[in-house]
Design goal:
This protein is of the alpha/beta class and 448 residues long. It has one domain (3-67, 102-447): L-arginine/glycine Amidinotransferase, Chain A (5-stranded Propeller). It has helices spanning 26-30, 38-54, 70-75, 82-92, 94-100, 136-139, 142-152, 217-226, 241-244, 272-284, 302-308, 329-332, 335-346, 360-363, 380-385, 394-407, 420-436, 444-447; strands spanning 3-10, 59-62, 112-115, 125-129, 159-162, 179-182, 191-196, 234-238, 255-258, 261-265, 291-295, 314-317, 323-328, 351-357, 373-379. The strands form five sheets. It has a three-stranded mixed β-sheet, with helices on both faces. It has a three-stranded mixed β-sheet with strand order 3-4-5, covered by helices on one side. A hairpin with a 5-residue loop joins strand 12 and strand 13. Helix 4 (82-92) packs across helix 5 (94-100). It starts with a strand and ends with a helix.
Amino acid sequence: MKSYEVNFDGLVGPTHNYGGLSYGNVASQSNSQQSSNPKEAALQGLAKMKALMEMGFQQGVLAPQERPDVAALRRLGFAGSDAQVIERAAKDAMPLLVASCSASSMWVANAATVSPSADTSDGRVHFTAANLNCKYHRSIEHPTTSRVLGAMFADQKHFAHHAALPAVAQFGDEGAANHTRFCHDYGQAGVEFFVFGRSAFDTRYPAPQKYPARQTLEASQAVARLHGLSDDGVVYAQQNPSVIDQGVFHNDVIAVGNGEALFYHEDAFLETDKMLVELQAKLAKRGGNFQAICVPRSQVTVEDAVRSYLFNSQLLSRADGSMLLIVPEECRGNERVWQYLQGLTSSGGLIREVKVFDLKQSMQNGGGPACLRLRVALNQTELAAVNPGVIMTAPLYDTLTQWVDKHYRDRLSENDLADPQLLLECRTALDELTQILKLGAVYPFQIN
């Protein structure tokens, strides 16, 4: 039976703004308080989805969240009508209002960790929503994320959903941004690769000194247990603390893997040689031939990687066995990175082609091509069981672009977040979106 890696891209929400909320994310902080363009952001993301679909890749859509999150503000003591809650938050605690308006759910690499049926003990595809408890503005996402994923992957015969891990620092979980999977074929048993920044309980593991390590070893181990993964199908690796302190807040900012290949920076991990040996041995037992592609620091520095988001790219397998790398425009703008990529694709190796996409609106907030997608490996039967409303087609692309043009603003500043009309615009748009994507009632305003 044929199997696929389906990329479900996050649809950018109507409140896309530059709040500078993500400490440790250089781009997020450096562009704080600039005016954003939600319409442009959403259309840029949709253009990438359409392009991948037209290249023959399976492509889906993951809906954004309701923002501002009035219910979250109520839990923090703001009372009255929805408009009064927003007004009072803007007057007394603007940072909380900004956090409640964040469109960060667009980066669905953080939405969940996904294990395909070939790896799990019960033969189902498992999803665990990420608690994202390191940042308040992201920690409020997982209840809606769980409902949206449940509406997309509803058939319990094929799909299993787990609640987010306990929302405490010891189980900080950032989802698939710190997880990848290696396999010979998407339908065969593979090796799941969990990268952590620190251990909550074991002091033998060093921690970064400047920026927080968002993923814990204990969270990764808990997800592996929940998904019923076997020990011989899992590898844990620690991210280099020094690169976290240079702005590498997730593993997907310094490494990307797909199929049998890991594309990574020389400084990405601790005990790299040991990790590579383990990956090679475990994948070989599952019929795979692991290949490591190391980018040396002498050619691309960590600073280059962070500024260009070279590794926050999509590594896609083509029918002829070669791979395609999807990178943001910022890679072409960095002389050292672009020179490296030209040499890489002309060397006759595994990665034969690079395609560049303009994702400036997302990039300015710290998210590149890899941040915008959640990968789900599915066989033909499982793909047929997915809610068909979320699978990208040419008509759906046209419908969504029209929907964006109808509902989104082309400029949004911090002051605009205090406008109660923005909440009404967002709810109107999302109510229509759930009908377009056939999701049913997944948002709090539709349920309560």
